[in-house]
Amino acid sequence: MHAPSLPDRTIEAYTDVTGHGRLERLRSLAETLADRRILHVNSTATGGGVAELLRSIVPVCEDLEVGTDWLVVDADDDFFEVTKAMHNGLQGSGPPLTGEMKATYRAVTERNAVELDEEYDLVVIHDPQPLGMIDRLEETMPDAPIVWRCHVDLTDPSEEYLAFVSEYTDRVDHAIFSRSAYEIEMDAPTTIVYPSIDPLTEKNRSLDEGTMATERDRMDPLSFDAPVVTQVSRFDPWKDQFGTLEAYRRARESVPDLQLALAGGMAGDDPEGEKLYEQVASKAVDDPNVHVVTDLPDARVNVLQRLSDVVVQKSLREGFGLVVSEALWKRTPVVGSNVGGIPLQIEDGETGYLVDPDDASGAGDRVADLLEDDRRRAEFGENAREHVRERFLLPRQLVDLLEVVVDALDRSG
């Protein structure tokens, strides 16, 4: 296992984006957790929403003097092939789960757990990938509560995958889900905590005019002199970039000079990403107004979301989809699928529009509606900024998380 490098963060830096009462609540919770040590474990340091969350949560906790570490599983492609199948299976569409897959999973999680040579008062395991470490953790840290933080959409899981994961989740002390619809039957207490964005990161902070101009020029041949609709997401079948292409083509019937940017990254634990990127690029290669790009630096993603006229999130399933809040924070309205955490972020008819996940034509029509009404886009953008400020910024999520930590430690005695 290894510890990713982390940026500097202070709680005071959030004074301008959140209420005084929320920051005081964080300080109070931190005092309660003095002298406690917390460990977060996940499967990748780059490319996914969980890694982005931890990259901000951990240093803020440290600034609050809550001893917090973050470790990432070390594994090879065989393991990540298995865990991607688990992810897909838990979201309803995975290959048969074989004995060999289970053995690979158990061997890698056991090997990583053996490497833990420090003790913690509480361990937070993120998603299914590191859950197999519980066997070892129960031996080495028998008094430490285990919190499972599930970021996956579990509304329609494959029974065989759910049964396998339940071998471990049945032994956790607390579980956190992103929506009540994702909760599974468990003996342990459960809590709903919405994920959040960090408004201070390079991807979300305000940018000076020089940076905006430089990053804009670097996106040539994409031109912001004509309308732009954008989707920012990993190259993953659930993100439905192909459906976004359909929606764009529908919108172009009303807005002929429309351009589409499909921007995404490759998560370190997702072996499907490169293949899907190539498939999407091949579908778009004959249209010079479609720009398929990958691994943009965060400042460029920031500028792309700010300068786009509309952002689309055409997911078929979605654990939460924080790219929606990223765009809304930048006053860009979003047309998103009515799945997962997306409807929690989009207020339909106020900050953007919700459409059925299989309705590419409807998504295209909604994009065209916004492109043809400058006043509505501006109004939606202002509404969006305030909606995210109240519900989806890091200090609120951290309050919710630390309240769970305090409760789990109190119950453990």
Automatic annotation (TrEMBL):
<keyword id="KW-0313">Glucose metabolism</keyword>
<keyword id="KW-0328">Glycosyltransferase</keyword>
<dbReference type="GO" id="GO:0016757">
    <property type="term" value="F:glycosyltransferase activity"/>
</dbReference>
<dbReference type="InterPro" id="IPR052078">
    <property type="entry name" value="Trehalose_Metab_GTase"/>
</dbReference>
<keyword id="KW-0808">Transferase</keyword>
<dbReference type="InterPro" id="IPR001296">
    <property type="entry name" value="Glyco_trans_1"/>
</dbReference>
<keyword id="KW-0119">Carbohydrate metabolism</keyword>
<feature type="domain" description="Trehalose synthase N-terminal">
    <location>
        <begin position="40"/>
        <end position="182"/>
    </location>
</feature>
<feature type="domain" description="Glycosyl transferase family 1">
    <location>
        <begin position="225"/>
        <end position="386"/>
    </location>
</feature>
<dbReference type="InterPro" id="IPR049438">
    <property type="entry name" value="TreT_GT1"/>
</dbReference>
<dbReference type="Pfam" id="PF21269">
    <property type="entry name" value="TreT_GT1"/>
</dbReference>
<comment type="subunit">
    <text>Homodimer.</text>
</comment>
<protein>
    <submittedName>
        <fullName>Glycosyltransferase</fullName>
    </submittedName>
</protein>
<comment type="similarity">
    <text>Belongs to the glycosyltransferase group 1 family. Glycosyltransferase 4 subfamily.</text>
</comment>
<dbReference type="Pfam" id="PF00534">
    <property type="entry name" value="Glycos_transf_1"/>
</dbReference>
<dbReference type="GO" id="GO:0006006">
    <property type="term" value="P:glucose metabolic process"/>
</dbReference>
